[in-house]
Specification:
- With 497 residues, the chain is an alpha/beta fold.
- The protein contains 17 helices and 23 strands.
- The protein has 2 domains: 270 residues, Aldehyde Dehydrogenase, Chain A, domain 1 (3-Layer(aba) Sandwich); 185 residues, Aldehyde Dehydrogenase, Chain A, domain 2 (3-Layer(aba) Sandwich).
- The strands form 6 sheets. A 7-stranded mixed beta sheet has the order 15-16-17-14-13-19-20, with helices on both faces. Strands 10-9-8-11-12-22 form a 6-stranded mixed beta sheet, sandwiched between helices. A 3-stranded mixed beta sheet has the order 1-5-4, covered by helices on one side.
- α16 links the parallel β19 and β20.
- α1 crosses α9, α2 crosses α8 and α3 crosses α4.
Length: 497
């Protein structure tokens, strides 16, 4: 049995804990690895090595750091196929989808290569007579990332490249369900010339997470996962005086207007709802059919959902792979059962999909519900699977109220040909990321990713300049050089004159 260890201080580290967790290949439904879970002592060691490395790493110039990150980018590109296959083997998503997610992570590495420019401060001469003022951004110290199973490359790469480029050191705690990609990235970063201890990976469960949350040597924590855990991370990190950004769950709505290009909307929804088997925080899980577009929308969707090619991720013909674990498969099936019980119309039922030769895999086909109501749990709760719910509303204002009334505020889209409708929607919607005729509005690396309401705890989004600000602290210096003349003491509040 393949054993997956930790990566601490520039090398593989076995750890002191005897706790392990199983890693499965979802396509075949069989265990392929065993991952060792960190004890508190293992976590503390990783933090201490990161703390020791911070002293020298933070002193390096931004240009020196950028040189190593450029090399890291080059090594990722050289190892694209291996990294992609690691994602497919442990997560299950199809090859091209896994490759695309790696590309979105690489975009942030590319952004971090520009750190000498991004860390420039501001300078004002003569804010007062012979007094200058300027600001600089300095690193925080040891930063931590706690990341989910659904994007084992992309989400960690939204965190650690910027944190490290800014002069911090980093401890990553990836999902124990698919940890191999993170270990490979750590090895590549070392090969790029990153000093030992600057980037560390620990595998673990709640014991490891709590150790990170309570350590006095951790300055900041970034998290992506479910809303209950995001709230837990936010509260406990803040209680322990840490800077924190905790991204939670989602229930993303796609509003389909009667005037839209219907085939464009259907194709957009297919990829957004069923890509990666719906295991995306940006998946479109609710289609809001406005006015009389509902019947046509459901008919066109049903035909495409029924023809979805479900199979192993390395099969070039597969459009959708399995779910990540058997437990998650049962959870998603349970939600489909619940939707039927609640009275929604199950137009396409994918619960009994079993690809030939892969009967033990964790597969479910695409599921499509119509006549879903906002009181139903399948509407309220995040299913995180290939289940699309169609809600019918009377008009645009009703659609706007429906989206704004949901507790989550991660992403949303609208399909329309009317510029005024698109502009009004973008202005009035209470959601962090908005697409107009775009199915999954994930911002590029030089903008920032983050939701509103119960989809984000903390006031900082990820990557882009928001990431640079999160991983640095602002210092403002005001300076006056003496002219040689003695001055008298001044006992009033200084003003610039």
């Amino acid at each position: 049995m393949n054993s997956i260890e930790h990566f601490i201080n520039g090398k593989i580290f076995k750890g002191s804990s005897k706790k392990t967790s199983q890693v499965f290949n979802p396509a075949i439904g069989e265990q392929i690895s065993e991952v060792n879970l960190a004890s508190k002592a293992d976590v503390d060691l990783a933090i201490q090595k990161a703390k020791q490395a911070f002293t020298d790493w933070s002193k390096k110039s931004p240009a020196q750091r950028a040189k190593i990150i450029f090399k890291f980018k080059e090594l990722i590109e050289k190892n694209y196929d291996e990294l992609t296959k690691l994602i497919v083997s442990e997560h299950g998503k199809v090859y091209e989808d896994a490759k695309g997610s790696l590309t979105r992570g690489l975009e942030v590495v590319e952004f971090a290569c520009g750190i000498p420019h991004l860390l420039k401060g501001e300078f004002t001469e003569n804010v007062g007579t012979d007094i200058d003022s300027w600001s600089v951004r300095q690193p925080l110290g040891v930063c931590v990332g706690i990341t989910p199973f659904n994007f084992p490359a992309m989400v960690p790469m939204w965190m650690f490249p910027i944190a490290i480029a800014c002069g911090n050191t980093f401890v990553l705690k990836p999902s124990e369900k698919d940890p191999s990609c993170s270990i490979k990235l750590a090895k590549l970063f070392k090969e790029a010339g990153l000093p030992d201890g600057v980037f560390n990976v620990i595998n673990g469960d709640k014991e490891a997470v709590d150790s990170l949350l309570t350590s006095k040597d951790v300055a900041a924590i970034s998290f992506v996962g479910s809303t209950p855990i995001a709230k837990y991370i936010y509260e406990n990190a803040a209680k322990n005086e840490k800077r924190v950004q905790a991204l939670g769950g989602a229930k993303n709505h796609c509003v389909v207007m009667p005037d839209c290009e219907i085939d464009q909307a259907v194709n957009g929804l297919m990829g957004a709802a069923y890509g990666s088997a719906g295991e995306r925080c940006m998946a479109q899980s609710v289609a809001v059919a406005v006015g009389n577009v509902g019947n046509l929308l459901v008919a066109k969707l049903a035909k495409k959902v029924e023809s979805l090619k479900v199979g192993p991720g390395l099969d070039k013909n597969s459009e959708m792979g399995p779910l990540v674990t058997k437990e998650h498969l049962e959870r998603v099936r349970g939600y489909v059962d619940l939707g039927v019980q609640e009275g929604a119309k199950l137009v396409v039922d994918g619960r009994n999909i079993k690809p030939q030769g892969y009967e033990k895999g964790f597969y479910i086909g695409g599921c499509l519900f119509d006549n879903v109501e906002k009181k139903m749990r399948i509407y309220k709760e995040e299913i995180f699977g290939p289940v699309l719910s169609v809600v019918r509303v009377r008009d645009f204002d009703s659609a706007l109220d429906l989206v704004n009334g949901h507790e989550f505020g991660n992403g949303t889209s609208i399909y329309t040909r009317d510029g005024d409708v698109g502009r009004t929607f973008a202005s009035k919607i209470k959601i962090g990321m908005v697409g107009i005729n775009i199915p999954i509005p994930v911002p590029v690396a030089y903008h920032s990713f983050g939701g509103w309401k119960r989809s984000l705890f903390g006031d900082s989004a990820m990557h882009g300049m928001e990431g640079v600000k999160f991983y640095t602290k602002l210092k403002t210096i005001t300076s006056k050089w003496p002219s040689g003349l003695r001055s008298d003491p001044d006992f009033v509040m200084p003003t610039m004159k």
